[in-house]
From TrEMBL:
Recorded family membership: Belongs to the binding-protein-dependent transport system permease family. CysTW subfamily.
Database matches in CDD domains: TM_PBP2
Domain ABC transmembrane type-1: 201-407
Top-level lineage group: Bacteria
Main location: membrane
Cellular compartments annotated: Cell membrane
Name of this chain's protein: ABC transporter permease
Length: 419
């Protein structure tokens, strides 16, 4: 019996268009639902994470103190170029602004802000404010100001007011890069006695790099051991690895002070065993910082590497050995390249976390062992110089973003390959 082919009627153009429209509508509806699910998280991050950071970083360029307290003087100085003669109207405007500030008691922020940039500005303004207001019958405002203090005749003093006559400033950003304005309002490098922050950034990155390398050296074989042990034993050791997470960072740091001090357990053992004749200085120096930070950051390196190693089949190594490859060469050429993603993620996580460390170097390190985060905290809480603290934080954040971009470019795109 011959079988008759059953053919399905061809879909008309109108039916195909209707089906395509229905599919597009369904896809759009699913996208809207998916977007609706992530909107609360996006709003949470924007309001409680991104907005506060941007608000704080904005203080690195904010400069409202001079303009708000000396509005007439700021307006007069905007058309003045450093090097031109000082005009009588500048002194008259300054006399009006200072008299108003004295009456309104708003000169405190002004003196503090200018003293950040030019030490001695507070004493100059304080001395001048005591003479305000000037008599209405004054003949020359310039002569009166120069009689109060001779610095009012110096163009460098007016250059200070000139570069602060706008509500935005680059002073904090320049200071964070060891640069400054000279008396002609030109950007120049700070002197050797004033250049500290670039060295601190270099020290921060160097210490973070040492911690990352030491952590990697310890974490890689330990991760390999955890990945190859039987499940029961491996889980027990993993609990020991995660144990530091259950202890406060401050407690762990204080514990290392007890262990590393001259009369501590480690020095006591070294002297008892005859390795040293007297206790070694292991705390309040760079060694103590490295030991404590490596211990604290070790789990952050182990977990990414372990998660990658756990997914690598051991048959690859056995196959390479069975084909005549030496075990060490098999490990390096077959096994290690598959762990590069975990190693890179662990190094990035440890390095970025380390450059922002504050408590451990502050408690275990000396004056020359403090990282940039210590100075950010100092200018935030100590000297209340939020502009400089924000500038230092901005460059630290920029370095973090650059590191992540490099990591994403090399590892995320798969460009890192080992032969």
């Amino acid at each position: 019996m011959s079988q008759m082919a059953i053919t399905k009627p061809a879909m008309s153009a109108s039916e195909a268009a209707a089906l395509q429209t229905k599919f597009a509508t369904s896809t759009k509806r699913n996208k809207v639902k998916a977007f609706g699910l992530v909107v609360p998280l996006v709003l949470f991050l924007l309001l409680l994470f991104v907005a506060p950071i941007l608000s704080f970083l904005n203080k690195s360029i904010e400069n409202p103190e001079v303009v708000s307290v000396l509005p007439i003087t700021s307006e007069q100085l905007r058309d003045w170029e450093v090097g031109q003669p000082l005009q009588e109207r500048f002194y008259q405007a300054l006399a009006q602004d200072l008299a108003t500030a004295k009456q309104a008691r708003t000169s405190g922020d002004l003196m503090r802000r200018l003293n950040f940039e030019e030490p001695g500005a507070r004493s100059l303004l304080s001395k001048t404010l005591r003479k305000m207001p000037l008599p209405e019958t004054v003949g020359s405002y310039r002569s009166e100001f120069e009689h109060i203090d001779g610095r009012w005749a110096d163009p460098a003093t007016w250059a200070l007011f000139k570069r602060n006559s706008n509500e935005l400033t680059a002073f904090y950003l320049l200071t964070a890069l060891d640069m400054k304005y000279n008396d002609q309002n030109e950007i120049v490098s700070a002197g050797a006695s004033e250049s500290i922050f670039l060295d601190i950034y270099l020290r921060t990155f160097k210490m973070a790099l040492v911690v990352t390398l030491c952590t990697l050296i310890l974490a890689y074989p330990l991760s390999y051991l955890l990945a190859t042990l039987p499940a029961k034993t491996g889980n027990l050791l993993m609990i020991l690895v995660l144990l530091p997470f259950w202890t406060s960072l401050l407690v762990r740091t204080a514990a290392w002070i007890v262990l590393l001090q001259n009369g501590g357990i480690i020095n006591g053992f070294l002297v008892w065993a005859g390795f040293v004749d007297q206790p070694i200085q292991l705390v309040f120096n760079r060694i103590g910082v490295y030991i404590s930070m490596v211990h604290i950051m070790l789990p952050f390196m182990i977990l990414p590497i372990y998660s990658v190693m756990k997914g690598i089949s051991p048959t690859y190594i056995r196959a390479a050995i069975s084909l005549g490859c030496h075990p060490i060469a098999s490990f390096w050429k077959v096994y290690f390249p598959q762990t590069v993603a975990g190693v890179s993620a662990g190094c990035l996580l440890v390095f970025i976390t380390s450059i922002g460390y504050y408590i451990t170097p502050a408690l275990l390190g000396g004056p020359k062992d403090q990282m940039i985060s210590y100075f950010i905290a100092f200018y935030t809480n100590g000297s209340i110089n939020w502009g400089l603290a924000a500038a230092l934080g901005m460059f630290l954040l920029l370095a973090t973003l650059i590191l992540y971009a490099v990591y994403n470019r090399l590892v995320g795109s798969g460009k890192v390959r080992l032969a």
